[in-house]
Structures are given as C-alpha cells and as structure tokens.
Amino acid sequence: MEPASWMSDSPTPFHSVLVANRGEIAVRILKAVRECGLKGIAVHNDLDSDAMHLEFADCVAHLEGDDLSSTYLSIEAIMHAARSTGAEAIHPGYGFLSEREEFARAVVESGLVWIGPPPEAIRVMGDKIRARESMINAQVPVIPGKSISISEGEDPLPQLAAAAADVGYPLLLKASAGGGGKGMRVVEEPKLLRSEYQAASREATAAFGDGTVYVESLLRGARHIEIQIFADSHGNIIHLNERDCSLQRRHQKVIEEAPSPAVNPELRRRMGAAAIEAARAVNYEGAGTVEFLLSQRNEFFFLEMNTRLQVEHPVTELITGLDLVHMQLMVAAGNELKLSQSDVPITGHAMEARIYAEDPSTGFLPSIGPIARFDAPSGPGIRVDAGVREGDEVTTSFDPMLAKIIVHAPDRKTAINRLDHALSETTLHGVRSNIEFCRDILNTEAFQGPGVTTDYLDGKDFKQNPDENALGLVAIIATVAEKFGLNKSKHTSSNILDRHSGNEQDPFRTLAKRFP
User: Fold this and answer.
1) pLDDT, tens digit, for every residue of 19-39?
2) Is a pLDDT exceeding 60 seen at residue 4?
3) CATH architecture for the domain at 144-217
4) What spatial distance separates the first Cα and last Cα of the chain, rounded to whole Å?
5) Considering the chain, what is the average pLDDT of its residues?
6) Which CATH architecture has domain 220-344?
7) In the Cβ-directed half-sphere of 412, how many Cα atoms lie within 13 Å?
8) What is the pLDDT of residues 57-67, one digit of tens each?
9) Where are the domains of the chain?
C-alpha cells in the first residue's frame, strides 16, 4: 500500500478490510480499499444478494437472514463473516453498527483492526448527556439544558416541569442515545410537556433501546455547522474546515455545502479549535465530526459528535483535496498524520444533494419498486456516489437514500448552478424521488442569498404539481417503450423521456416556487 504524501511511510498491519455496510457508502469504501492495494470484503443478507456494492469487493460474505437485526445489526453475524473470510480489519461505514461501542470493542478484542475511534470515545459521545458533561469540562460551549432521571413507573411531569422552568420555552426534548432526529420533540408550551416526553422516550426506546431524554433550549433561526476533525494515535489532531448542514427536514439533512456562507476565517478558527478540544477530551482517533449550532449572534454551541464518517464527507474532500477514507485506513494502520493545520486548504465551493426514493407529495413517504431507469449526471466538477443501478429493487427493508450528487465549483453561486444542472440531468424512473424538491430549494432567493437556517423548511408546502405527476407517468411509459423497442419515431419515446426527466429546459418542466 503506497502511503499518501501527508502520512508517514510505516507499513500497514492489515491487508484485507471487511466493510460492515451496504449501499453507496459500502461502494465508496470498497473503492478506496482497492485503490490502497488492499483486499475488500463485502457482506449482504438474503434481500440484497445482487446489490451494487458487491461488484466492488474481492470477496463476499453472506449474512444469513432477511432482517436487519440478525444481519447488518448483528455483531455476532458480522464477526462470523470476518472470521470466515480472513478479514484483518473492519470498516463500519455509517449507520448500522458504526457507533456501537460493543461492536468496536468486539472487533478490537478479537485482534482485528477497528477502522474507527476507540470504543471509549464512542461510548462517551454516544451518550449525549455524558457528552455534554465532557464538553463542559473541556470548556467547549454547550446549549443550555438540563438532565433528568425518570425511574420506571415514576410520574415524569414534576422533573420535566422543573427542568423546563430552568431552560425556558420553547424547548427541545432529546434522546440521550442515537441521532438522526429520532427521539426529538419540540415543546412550545407547558401543557404539551408530558405527551411530547412520552412520544420522544417511546421513539428513543424503539430506535436505540434507551428511552432516556433530556431537556435543551431550542435555538430558533440557527445554523447547523459541523467541523470535520481527524486524529491519529500519536496525539496529532487537526480539523478539515466546516460544512453547513442547515437545510434540514425534521432534523434530516437535505443539502450540505462547504465551506459555510455564514462562517468567516476568525469564526472558523474558533470553531475549529473548539472541535479539536472536544476530540482531545475523549482521546479521539480517526475521522469524526463535531456538530455545532450557530446562533444569529454568531455564538456557537456544541450539539453532538458523530464518531464515524459522515454522509456528507465528499464536500470536505472536494474543497480540501483529501481522501478521508484513505486517511482512515492510514490512521487505523498506526501511521502518523504529516498534515498540519496550516496545510489544510479551502479551494472553491462544494455542495451535495441526497437523492431519496421518497414522494414529497405524500409527506415524503418511501417510494418502492424497481428502478426502471437511472442515468447519473457527469461532467467537470460533478461527482456521483451511488448505491443502486438500473434494475435494482427499492424496498422498505433498507434506507431510501439511493445516491448523492456532489459538485465542486470556484464559488458558491457557480456551485448552486452546477448542482441544479446536475440534478436536471439525473434520470430516475420507476420510483418517485426528491430530485425536483432539491432543485426547487436551490432556486429560492433564500438559499441563493446568505443561505438558510435549520427551521427554514418548517411548515412549507411540499405538494407536487399535478402536471409533474402526469409527466412522470409519461416518462415511465416511455422507458418501458424504449426497453421493448417500441420507440420507432424520433419524436416519441426517448425524446419525450429526455424532456420529462429534466434533461432539457423546456416548457413541460414546471418549477413551482414553493419556498418564498
């Protein structure tokens, strides 16, 4: 394995890597593993034996079963796959077991190399209450909040009311474990406190097996800024600048960009320094993301730390020229970072849109079925990280994210235009998607100006234009016709398909300005 110029030249202690994941992130990691001259091992269960990520592996292990709990979420199943394939290291990707301390510990104790942070760091940062306490001790600013401890059978209202009185309304109830917006409820007034607590605790228990909830002040009109950090086992920690992830729907990120239009060099320096202190407080190693909320007064507060690779890591790669997965592999191999803080550049502007199989007109419910056609965009400054291809079946068994369309340009305005153009050239038929939804947002004055805050999409109307529904049906019919050789006229089928998939700026495309 040839080390990059920003790493030391120590030999790697492993030669094969099992990727305990699927979809686009498994494809991304397996490609990097192969580029580094290592053997890539993929896993799959009964439902995805023909998945795209398997094409990029040198070896494949079958996880017996057709549910997540006994396959991708089973430590025992993954460890058995590692043993049976002779894997020497495990990369968890994101989601699934990536932030489970027990999984990291099982890998380390088995003698394999864990491509991630130490189990103890995962444990501390995975418990939001404990993470807050660690940040306070490290003098990293945190959002005002209160921890509560509700015993089984105890009436939660007295403790909740006391905490709410200290924090003030509106407030946020947050699950101590997990993330992704689960176990979170906004409470505007006291009469809703009990019901929202019960809902948050119930959701947290179902998602993470832990219903512990704490109370936090709700910051209106804030930005969601995250700092990418990297640390090696020799005590070196740097940050790789910030990403702006403020455009969210129900705490789920939609479009991310780097750098943030709201962060100047001085603020970047201070937030970066705080992120490094947060990582140092838990003896962090590898890639991690420290997330902050940035108030309208430019005050920033620690939100949480993701102890893994982020979905939006490509925008950081594009503005820095660094490969974060290569860096993860090198650090896990025990090598020392040769990159100092002053060596980390910001070149141009990058932006990413997450493409989901979901229907905005039905409240973003998942859209399932076969992918009749999928043509990804290409061209200068365009990158596509996809986890599916034409003919694949979209089911409710897995996350509905299909791909990420990422662009890089000299400046933010050009990046917005380039992403909009790339999305217009993305053809996806057979399932509904959020492509037009993302395009509509990109073309709003609010986004094209200084950017938006985390509550920008709250209460917005996402109803699809009826004409767009009809055009989507025409496009699917045209795809079927093309598949069976029925498009004999140059004025039908493929031409209609091109126009209705957004490949041309034509009168058929209705761009409703839904977000003033």
Assistant:
1) 999 999 999 999 999 999 999
2) no
3) 2-Layer Sandwich (3.30)
4) 52
5) 89
6) 2-Layer Sandwich (3.30)
7) 15
8) 999 999 999 99
9) 16-115, 144-217, 220-344
